[in-house]
Amino acid sequence: MRTKIFLIAALCGMAASASATPTIQHWQSSGGAKVLFVEDHDIPMLDVAVSVPAGSSFDRAEKSGVAGLTHHLLDLGAEGLSEDDIARGMADIGAQLGGSFDQDRASVSLRTLSKVAERDKALDTMARVLQQPLFPEAVLTREKARIIAALKEAETKPESIADKAFQRAVYGGHPYALAVSGDIASIETITVQDLRDFHTRYYRVNAAVVAIMGDVTRAEAEAIAEKLTAKLANGAAPAALPEMTMKIAASEQRIAHPASQSHILLGAPGMSRSDADYFPLYVGNYILGGGGFVSRLMSEVREKRGLAYSVYSYFMPLKQPGAFQIGLQTKKAQADEALQLVRATLATFVTQGPSEKELLAAKQNIVGGFPLRIDSNRKILDYLSIIGFYDLPLTYLDDFSRKVEQVTVMQIRDAFSRHLDPMAMATVIVGAPEGVAK
Amino acid sequence: MKKILVVAVLLFGYCAGVSAQVFERTLANGLKVIVKEDRRAPVVVQQIWYKAGSMDERTGVTGIAHVLEHLMFKGTAKVPMGEFSKRIAAAGGRENAFTSYDYTAYFQQLHKSKLPLAMQLEADRMRNLKLSAVEFGKEIKVVMEERRWRTDDEAHSLLQEKMMAAIFQEHPYQHPVIGWMNDLEALGVGDAQAWYDRWYAPNNATLVIAGDVQASEVFALAQKYYGGIAKRAMPVRRDFTEPKQVGIKRLVVKAPAELPHVVMSFRAPTIKNPAQDWKPYALEILAGVLDGNESARLNKHLVREQQVASGTGVGYDSVSRGPALFMLEATPSEGKTVIDVEIALRKEIAQLVKEGVSEEELQRVKAQVTAGEVYKRDSVFYQAMQIGQMESIGLGHQAIPVMLERLQAVTAEQVRQVAEEFLQDDYLTVATLDPQPLSDKPKRAPQGGAHAH
After folding, report:
1. Which residues of chain A have a CB within 8 Å of the CB of B435?
2. Taking 70 as the threshold, does the pLDDT of residue A59 lie above it?
């Protein structure tokens, strides 16, 4: 999940010395797919990921869940292969088929040995899964039942209840508010035809991003990109998503739950991937609540007062502005105290910004920790996908440290005050303290 | 809180082949230093592993191993409170720590040039930790919050905790790593000090350094920073032998949830002699046959074909200091009960024992192990983890390639035999989650309203 990558990213750090970034090769497939490739023969293995703009924000409300189910069913039956053929075939050669799914993006990934026999078989399966999924009726029926069961289970979990209420409060009527896995009622209505239509419309070759990392040559990589995308439809782009409403009214939902802790979330629409303030907000958030043990929220809530085990903040950078979110859990009796403290910490930060000393420490960590961001094939593959999908410059990794270094206290204060109004945050408390609200 | 899944440990196992360069040296004070050179990226990981986990605790002070882990970040005479994390962060590092039944470990990942700093800080807190009642008082509250979050409010964790307490009568695995809440409430700074004094010594630790380093340079640095810490007499460790289980046990745990869940846990052996044992390896393969991929038996039969379960899982860890469990678990699908899934799981076992596994299934699991050996090279951190784990449980990192060979040598008949020998009612505990409705189960939350039980 991107959330996680973002949080972890914020925790890692690197030495001021510029370190070598991988050389990214870039081209378009014959059908128009964008391809990003890093050639690396250190380990005899290959990682590939194909991403398409087919996340949950492309769902219609009354059919919420179609996007997720389409993605989920890709490897449960494809041209000439049953779901078992796919799973057994991959296991037999030690290959791993995976994927990720969020509001913007659906992706399928593969890790395989790079020996020709294994690689060809794995890529052949991946090609069919992506381009010729079957969406068998019986599988859909079964998987709908499983997802509905999981959604019912989630409705009893304080963290899931909080998350759902939070998404609604922050995103309002925007498609980002749609539940990523759909709703129980809408999932019940989904048919095989819905999935076929969605696949044809949104899994488009000319919108696909192919990331390739590892032990193949350029010529082989070109053939792989063709094989994985050439049979996808070449269609017109869907209508653009509506603009996010950045200003929301302050709200507070207190939701009863028998858990011993209150789960608290607060936030508002934050920033997009292409936001001009991306780096000031990113670095600022490291100081506020992204920097693990050394962040302000951690210091105030955990270190000084022992009020919570985990407290964090992050920006979820999506195509449109994703949420800025602060989260923590604390025992019910002290939930209001903790919430007040978090609000005060946020308000102080937005008004005053960080100190020079804090900014220096943040830069030391983020720049100094840069090599840890690209120290494995897996991490580089993820960067390739993000760079391609969000149209970031190919020099993104080369520029990263410099852009962090350039951030000033003034920019952070300015960017935070323009993006966040501490008086207009959505707050959700699940397992709210009993008695009077506020 | 489930320990690492079965094959997981071995899947990413380590192979003495090509690029795997492991060097080892023990300092005069007993600190064992192990270096894994890997030059793919200019980074390094330092991990220090203390052979002191929750299984070394006594009744009444459960959780102290983990509490001390938290307190290790609270400062020394030379490095004041909060400075450890600040200095690692300023060096661009990531850091954390973890406690298990068997060990406690601390780690930092940083640019290779920052290894001396990490070593200096880690060595300092091995000897010079400063504990105060005030900091203890704050941190114990943090740990209580952690317990509420991880266990008390998590139905499956609670089930696991109560199940372990029911399975083990004498062995300390009966106590949760995080400690019973009642014990956390009773602990004091003196307990933490006693724990630190007892176990935090160079001769009870393994230092693992992996990454873009030269072993000889690492040994010199280790001598410089850790070499001056005096060796100390270690207390005699009690060797717990859990009494033989003499019949099936059952327990029910009620917790807020929607779906029931059942876990069937069989007492099982661990690897004692890596080169001679065969049963633990056969159990590892068995776990892979049942749950190693989407077409493995449990998912294929119970979830996809019979649709009696909406999810299944298998857990087995052949490497641990204490006794092992072979666990099968499943969540019934809508309209099915825990009895239905238990019957279905039992049918799978019966079929295994009667007909064994096919050569194809066996080779499939082994192919995944082989590929995992290659993939594992993509994570320096994981390679270091594996070395530290193997050292801390007493098998030593040299066992890793041996275990891999032994795993490849398992036969289909051996897999059948271990199923027959260990998956028996006399060694079984069945733990069931009985889901309880939320007290007032609002479909949508009342806004701004008060809540009454």
Report:
1. 156
2. yes
